[in-house]
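Tutorial handout. Part one gives the primary structure; part two gives the three-dimensional structure as tokens.
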Amino acid sequence: MTASTDLDQLKQAIRITDLARELGLQIKGKQARCFNASQHKHGDKTPSLGFDLQTNRFKCFACGVNGSIIDLYKEVKRVDLSQAIKDLSQMTGIQGENSKTIGNNTQRPKEGVLTALAGVYEAFRGYCGELDTPSLAYLTGKDRRLTAETIKRFKLFSVKDYSATNKHLKDSFSLEQLSEAGLISEAGNLLFYQHKIIIPFFDNGKIVFLQGRRTDQAHPRYLHLKRPVPLFNSDTLKDLKAGDKVYICEGVFDAMMLEQNGFKAVAILGVNNFKPEMTELFKGLEVVLCLDNDESGQQATQTLARLFLLQGQRVKTKTLPDGIKDITEYFIQ
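Part two.
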């Protein structure tokens, strides 16, 4: 292992169920017998080890052991942390010299897993092209008020012909690749059937995640990939200097609205998707929490503030006026 190993990238480099199978665990659905079964009262005959594909983490609901793919490898292999990081780095190609196959997924050493996935997402975006007229009308209309410049900056696009797009992706990529990218349902079809507006998440200029939005008010209004959820607009942090202010809000459109009005902002997709290690991205910055103006938003604000405080960083909070539900409503009213 070298000091340049990107642990956040490494934790997402292999789908946790693929690594678990590689380590010899017998998986059924999203569960398996715990590797600490001998310590369980009845030998864990009823599988208690669960896998969360969105966060790419595991947890045993009997003995409590939990963590990322690094922790899983460390515990099953009985090695120390540095050895686990070194071995996984070599497997994924993030630091290794040779390509290595994990499950059915061959990692490419120079590009890495995230770059390979970015290729799938870019192909998806390239085929869809620009926004269609109804999607553009929704984004620029009275409920969103995004400008053409903002829409172009965040590279929003839309699924114009679902059937044709579904076929194009299947013709261009294997079902394995599309599944690894989190783009297809259990039935093997493109996720975004009703959620035609697609919002890309970028990391170092590459698409690493996608979220879809319906243009009507039916639920669920949003749908995202079946992959661990990163911060939205995290690249904006790279432009900031020590002491600069950045807002953390709840939704992608709130972050866009703040940026459109001259503020630096990132968005989380629910407080549970903000991991303690993400606080490292904000070191030295003036962080302002501005989540939705409701009970759940207030609770999430307290949770995030505690996470930052535990990492030795204080944050500020911005309370919206009474009757204003979120950042977008604040600016358009």
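Part three, for discussion. The chain has three domains: 7-101, 115-224, 234-332. The mean pLDDT is 88.
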